[in-house]
Specification:
This protein is mainly α and 254 residues long. It is built from eleven helices and no strands.
């Protein structure tokens, strides 16, 4: 078996392991990955549509098109922060690229996001929004951008958490703050003009805007896609070099 084939098989095996661990002893299995964002959407729909009466058209669809990709991002980053510790015995016993471990976490949640797309399509059809041809290439392009951002941050937090164990808790706080700083439960039009320029410091801002534009309006926001790709490449490069710089000490500190 060639080296490339071996690595592909290894990535698939690690990803399958993450899926099996996630749903071990679970009756509903994959459905939990759909029910969780849907339940959050229900809560936010009640709070913002009935109580606060926020004027957002097709609000349920707006919510789930932001919550599903957010779940991929947040779950991957959170789980990656402890991924190396969870695979300590594997790291000590087997010689393989260590960055495959956080990669398997990101791919695991990416698979669940792909499997949730039919739910988004169903809600879109309910709101009389038909899928367009741009969905065919728009979904992979936005997913690529989100993958770069997510995997880059996963590499950073997974490696740094070995040396600063409190980082796991800081990541949880960071994700909570970032969620409310991202236009998922509100639209970007509601953001004050003096704050909007700083929203691009949030790497998920352009990603979520791109998803909303694609699913609700049927076309690709090339502006937000370009920004997210640019940010994704920067974060991925920083994450990769951070991971590589610290990887020689992993077995020592685990």
């Amino acid at each position: 078996m060639s080296g490339f084939s071996y690595y592909i098989d290894l990535i698939i095996t690690l990803t399958q392991k993450e899926i099996k661990v996630k749903y071990k002893s679970s009756i509903l299995g994959y459905l939990w990955s759909v029910l969780h964002p849907l339940s959050m959407a229900l809560v936010f729909y009640f709070a913002f549509k009935f109580v606060l009466k926020v004027p957002i058209e097709n609000f349920t669809l707006y919510l789930i098109t932001g919550l599903f990709p957010w779940q991929w991002f947040s779950n991957s980053v959170a789980s990656s922060s402890v991924s190396l510790l969870a695979n300590a015995s594997l790291i000590k016993k087997v010689n393989f690229p260590r960055y495959f471990i956080p990669l398997s976490n990101v791919l695991n949640d990416a698979v669940h996001y792909i499997l949730s797309l039919p739910v988004i399509v169903a809600f879109a059809l309910f709101y009389k929004i038909s899928p367009t041809l741009e969905w065919i290439y728009g979904i992979p392009l936005i997913m690529l951008s989100q993958f770069l951002i997510t995997y880059g941050l996963a590499l950073i937090v997974s490696s740094l958490n070995l040396f600063f164990r409190d980082l796991e808790r800081l990541v949880t706080i960071f994700l909570n703050i970032l969620f409310y700083a991202t236009p998922i439960i509100y639209t970007s039009e509601l953001i004050p003009d003096n704050i909007k320029p700083y929203m691009f410091l949030n790497p998920m801002f352009s990603i979520i805007e791109a998803w909303h534009t694609l699913f609700l309006k049927g076309y690709i926001s090339w502006y937000h896609l370009a920004i997210s790709l640019f940010e994704g490449l920067i974060i991925f490069v920083i994450g990769f070099f951070t991971f590589q710089k610290l990887s020689w000490r992993f077995a020592e500190v685990i």
